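Attaching the record inline, Q. Sequence:
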Amino acid sequence: MQLENSFAVGAPPERVFAYLLDVNKIVGCVPGAELSEVVDPTTFKGKVKVKVGPITVAYNGTAKITDRNDSQRTATLEAEGRETTGPGSARAKAYMSVLPEGVGSVVKIVTDYSVAGRVAQFGRGVMEDVSRKIVNEMAACIKSNVEAAEPAAGGSEGAGALDASDAPKPVAATAKPVNAFGLLFSVFWARVRAVFSRGSA
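Structure, as predicted:
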């Protein structure tokens, strides 16, 4: 399955691209994700817990940043994981690019993914809805954090400007798995019930 997403961020492309590839920062924007180990600058291990209707699935996996091009601000992320308590698995390959747009940036992400196991039974349409909402939650978190770190116009130059170390540090936004998944799966569960209702009629 393939999913395409894009979102705007009010910060320069270089800053946005650097944030996207900083695993210690980006992991907090992924609902239900936890960083376990940074193997090297391009490889890391982690856990993701997803609640799909009545099913909660946890994956242990490894992700790797490949084909990184700083001058073009593009990168590919490849990830795969296995269920911690079942035979299911998930695999994804995401191509990311950051382009200038006005005074800010636009992030484009094209993801090819596949799942096997209990989650796969819910079908392509539902999985696409869920994946899109997860990416939207991530986008809101990324946008909030990057823009919060962006200095105000004219604030870093001229007489009397505050030193960056004197400015109050913004609190980084993080994804909130419980609230996020309540939103993510409200549509999902309604569609599942509709499928089951038609099947029992």
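Residues 124-148 form the longest helix (25 residues). Strands lie at 2-9, 33-40, 43-52, 55-69, 74-83, 89-101, 104-116.

More tomorrow.
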